[in-house]
Amino acid sequence: MTRLQHPGHLEDWRKRLVEETTSLRRTIVVTAGTCGRAGGALEIRDALQAEIDRLGAGDKVGLLVTGCHGFCEMEPSVVVQPEGIFYGRLKPADAAAIVKQTGLAGKVVERLTFEIPSTGRRVARMDQIPFYKKQLRLVSEANLKVDPERIEDYIRIGGYRGLAKGLFDMTSEGVIEEVKAAGLRGRGGAGFPTAVKWELCRRASGHPKYVVCNADEGDPGAYMDRSLLEGNPHAVIEGMILGAYAMGAAEGFIYVRGEYPLAVKNVERAISQARVCGLLGQNILGSEFHFDLQVVQGAGAFVSGEETAMMASIEGRKAFPRQRPPFPSESGLWGKPTNINNVETWANVPIVLDRGSARFASVGTEKSKGTKIFSLVGQIRNTGLVEVPMGISLREIIEDIGGGVPEGRTLKAVQTGGPSGGCIPASALDLRIDFESLAKAGSIMGSGGMIVLDDRTCIVDLARYYLHFLEEESCGKCVPCRAGTRRMSELLKRMTSGLAEEGDLARLESLALTVKTASLCGLGQTAANPVLSTVAHFREEYEIHIREKRCPAGVCRDLVSPPSARPAGKKERP
Q1: What is the pTM of this model?
Q2: Side-chain half-sphere of 272: how many Cα atoms within 13 Å?
Q3: Using CB atoms within 10 A of its CB, is residue 385 exposed (0-12), middle (13-18) or buried (19+)?
Q4: Is residue 561 very low, low, confident or very high in pLDDT (cuts 50, 70, 90)?
């Protein structure tokens, strides 16, 4: 690796790297994030490499191992470039045909192509597959192009060019103004304007200052941050360096949960590579700016994702949230000004600096700019990570990209924002996906979890599941959250077990509002959302559970089993 002493050195290195790849006829790209590896991606990689070696085709066909491409339903998969031919659900035995027919001859192996379920038609190219067609991959685009273990790949596609521009062509205030002009908002919660947070931290008195990447992704079914850290860690690092330059910080932390071993490994390697190349540490790119990063592993508690609890954990204390104000921008880590953004927010920053704020702001709506990555899971045909422009309709995501619910089923609702979010009924399928529209619908964008629910889902049982999760994950520091989540969970258990009484629904709603307004941190303040949003849109289903002791979806065992099949013993009120 080359130590870069000047932005010109960076550009020279990039040109050499591009020239090295142009001699290849084709490159077989293997998706090998955690999801791909679980499906056998590394075995596919080994089989492809063995076939390339057997044919002596290494000078004609390259092999690139990347992070997740998003279409987790089809793992393990490969894409043959430059044609963009997609093959999914592969076995090692398919390697010979892929290398010989497609890699060397450019012919499509028909039996390995994607079959569109609704028509039965097979398509070969990635851009012909409905799952990818309506996506706009800006942040996740590099997951198709770089080996996360090689900084050279990131440099080759333009990596750290935005950093060079920021350090040498702009003042620190100018970087903030560019982010402000782009309209970038936080991708991990309610969408607070990123530049405003940066300005608050920059203007705050006190030194040193810190920047933090919140990669404590705790929402069930969500894995956007994991995918970005596994597949393109240098984008996050570059964004954090730019943010640190803008705010005057000299040290940063990436707080990632320990359950993400591949993400931790790739980020730590990327940090080490950036140091060797002069992109972290003293005199970055030969400038007078100094900044370094370290990884801190969390223990997996959901509350650790709350920023004040996370800071306590970084400091080596128990992850308990604290009262705000003061906000982290005034008094954060060790009482010093601290800025916290999530993984996707940081990964957007290099795009803004490299391509310009005007280009970034041309995507999205008036108030919600750019794209958003969603984890599309649940009762839907195509599951995976999707990156779409802000303002796209929920219908386009569910029906066009996701392929709709399974045949013979009916869409019931879409749950967004994880345990802190809410349920959107099928009748609101034309809702535009942006911060304001989701808030108006009683939900949030959150980090990007999107769970599709069909007619087999019991909404009351879903709310019970989330409240049980939040009850277990509450840190217990404040009474409204500690006792409130427990009591809401108890009331929902009564409803799903046939023990609810008239008035329990009113008690549940009243309690939910109290927890929402009186809790200390974001966990408690949003813990009521699964209740309030589902009651607002599915009150009749709650009333059927309470008054008729019946579960329309046939999910709640005590409401569908005959009395003789239920456990013996007196059932008392919790």
Answers
A1: 0.94
A2: 9
A3: buried
A4: low
Average pLDDT over residues 48-77: 96
Question: For 473-513, what is the HEC assignment?
Answer: HCCCCCHHHHHHHHHHHHHHHHHHCCCCCCCHHHHHHHHHH
Please, are residues 424 and 443 in contact by the beta-carbon 8 Å criterion? Answer: yes
Q: Which residue has the tokens 């003061």?
A: 326
Beta bridge partners of 342: 214
Give the Cα separation of 235 and 267 in Å (integer).
Answer: 10
Q: How far apart are CA 44 and CA 59, in angstroms?
A: 20
**Terminal alpha carbon distance of the chain:** 64
Neighbouring CB atoms inside 10 A of 75's CB total: 24
Cα 334 from Cα 128, distance rounded (Å): 52
- State which amino acid sits at residue 424: I
- The structure tokens listed for 103 are 């890699």
Domains and CATH numbers, the chain: 24-134 (3.40.30.10), 143-362 (3.40.50.11540), 377-454 (3.10.20.600), 459-559 (1.20.1440.230)
- Per residue in 406-442, pLDDT (tens digit) is 999 999 999 999 888 899 999 999 999 999 999 999 8
pLDDT of residue 568: 47
